[in-house]
Amino acid sequence: MISDSITNASATAAPSARDFGKKKRTNRTAKLKQSKLGLRREQWLSQVAMVNKGGKEEMDANRKPGSEKSDQRDRPVVNLDGHQRGEEDDNNSGANRHESFMESLSNSPNSILSGMNSIPNFSSSSSSGSGGSCSGNITEEEDADDDGCLDDWEAIADALAADDEKHEKENPPEFSEEHEHENIQQSACESDVAVSRKQKSNQAWRPDDELRPQGLPNLGKQRSSPVMNFHYSSVAVPSSCPICYEDLDLTDSNFLPCPCGFRLCLFCHKTICDGDGRCPGCRKPYERNTVKVETSVQGGGLTIRLARSSSMFCRS
Amino acid sequence: MMTPGGSGRFRPLPTAMYAGYSGTASSWVAKTSVSASGKRIQREMAELNVDPPTDCSAGPKGDNLYHWIATIIGPLGTPYEGGIFFLDIIFPSDYPFKPPKVVFKTRIYHCNVDTAGNLSVEILRDSWSPALTITKVLQAMRSIFLKPEPYNPALPVITRLYLSDREKHDEVAKEWTLRFAK
After folding, report:
1. Which domain holds residue B142?
2. Which end of chain A is less enclosed by CB atoms within 10 A, N or C?
């Protein structure tokens, strides 16, 4: 198969990458954490190949061409290229491996949104973008000395292996399935694959997908944020009285004494009505005449409750 | 027998303590008794510090929250340009419902300011609204620098000159600014 040849090529790529890593070893203590991440990646790759025999070829093909390709170029380009590839790679595979949670985050909104046309586009782009940026950060750390620190950290790798196995055993089936036909494209044209992978990584889980993780955020949670924002923007009741700056309670919030829409608390309204009785918002007098109407009507036996509770306070 | 002696012995101590605390206690009480206006003024002070209007500044004169001092710098392009005008602002105890009393402490040749510094500005009288803040008052002060209100004069003499001979008016105003506000 084509992927076999790629795997062989990647085997030769390893030593040169190590040499490059040795040059960078002066500051390796600072990059201990990043090296660990890189190691995890390597470890995972080798172990997945063993654990998941069926998906082995796709695995290697998916992962190794990065190093293979970097080997064919000059040294300075190696790092850059590795970085780019790593970022693309990580969008689908890296996130899968290390951050199954992250992957579910980045993938889920699209799946939900693809089903829900009513939700605006921006939420999908933002959520997928955040997922992408997260995975991007991971790769940047990894690629700094991904290959180079392999020999140094082999011992630690063994210690980490136990921890890694947990993640690996969860992920491989969906991983291999997901990228199976990508590898065919990849062998055809590298750059095209890079683009298609990016799209792949953001591709939504279909609701009927049997491999869809159980832990994906549910629809209601995704929907809630835009709806809530809309709700808040539509309600324009001030939180505090503009006159005395005391918080408006529920009664005050429902109190609309003037048609101009100026809201204030009941205390301030009473004080104003005891004085000149003009609305602070429009300077027009509060409607005192409605009170007279009320009393006369009550005399006639009809009870008409005024819509504006302000009348109660204007009586005096 | 016992109680008078006991009280006699202990009485001086509480009274002394009370006397010692009376000063602070009274000032504290004075502030809380008008807390509605006090809170409002404090809030306005905070807002003014965050977003002061152009060419204006204001703040309490001393530790009395109800007595402020404000400065307005004469806006460019007016005869008051470059002058610094001090104003006293005195808040009534029922402040937001009654307008603050604003008085020019710096002499100014302006048709809306009389010789004692009192202002004939509608928003400080009949057009006052509790929704207005000291920031808006200061903005109104600045706007009468830019555009006097000749139809609501404090000094009709100046108004007459302003309407009949604007150049002469501006000249005198500039001279007054130079003499009193710099």
Report:
1. 33-180
2. C
